[in-house]
Amino acid sequence: MTELQEVQITEEKPLLRAPGAPDPGKKHTVETPYGVVTITIHGTPKPKRPAILTYHDVGQNHLSCFDTLFHFEDMQEIIKNFVVIHVDAPGMEEGAPAFPLGYQYPSLDQLADMIPCILQYVNFTSIIGIGVGAGAYILARYSLSHADTVEGLVLVNIDPNAKGWMDWAAHKLTGLTSSNSEMILQHLFSQEELSKNTELVQQQRHVLSHATNLPNIQLYWSSYNSRRDLSLERGGDITFKCPVMLVVGDQAPHEDAVVECNSKLDPTQTSFLKMADSGGQPQLTQPGKLTEAFKYFVQGMGYIPYVLDKKLSQGGFVLHDAPLPLAHRLSVQCRLRGREPLPLAHAVPEQRGGGTSAASPHHGGVLLSAGPGDEAASHL
Predict the structure, then answer these.
(1) CA gyration radius, the chain
(2) Which of 4, 121, 130, 343 is the one with CA 20 to 30 A from 33?
(3) What burial class does residue 56 get, using C-beta atoms within 10 Å of its C-beta: 0-12 exposed, 13-18 middle, 19+ buried?
(4) pTM for the full model?
């Protein structure tokens, strides 16, 4: 009789994820009229709920742009209610090879026109979009042409304007003394961060200097700098038809552009979040504060019936009711100063045609507000 031998079998990938381990997501490639795009899907479809769709900035991919935010503990509690679709711009996915010389990279308008193919592929009819920089512009452009499929937008560092002659000249002069990589760093980070050479700046500089797909990144950068004006107009025909949350860091390179964008949008549908001490990438430096704002934003859309908010001063919870007017649903308890919690906005009758939520002056705190002016921004 043949002697039995013990054979050890190992698996490269476990059959089941360990409890609490992050969902690695499933990667798919989607054919579009403008080329192939890679998406990563997390979660399982929920009945009658939109997908959360993200789009990253230049010099990044979905991991470097959104991993910190979406792996934040409180964010996990929100996104378990949704399918999340991360879009990598063509040639930006992990391990992407460089495009051949002469490759015609899509314009930002064409990148936006890829999104219907993505939604058809995943069989979703609506989204809540989260975009940063170039990705924010792409989602904004898509929303303007496909308003019926967008239920909400979170736009970080959006610049809705085309480059003017002065911008073009400045860009050309900068290009004489700085590499594309350095110009991308100036696009991503504040001058203070660059001067201090923060850890994030060092990491991004290392990524750009060692990127095998650097030619692709430069093509994406060129498309961003060739973007068209969104031509947004408050009260006009070209505007967003869904709730919008604009986000920018205090002293960030795109602060003025986001302030201008806020002035062009419907104040009853728009909230403006200006985050202190967050630099040019608030989703990376202040994921907790951005998560809290997003939590109330989604709750205001009616997809989360209530939100439990930890009271940092007392260790308890505060229960917030969902059926508040939009301006008040967008009002967020942004921070605590000293030992006293910042007062919450209370429900008042809905005001049609321009009603806004006032910021609270108590304790020097300011609430996320849907006010019409530039000064309605919330400082966190």
Answers:
(1) 22
(2) 130
(3) buried
(4) 0.78
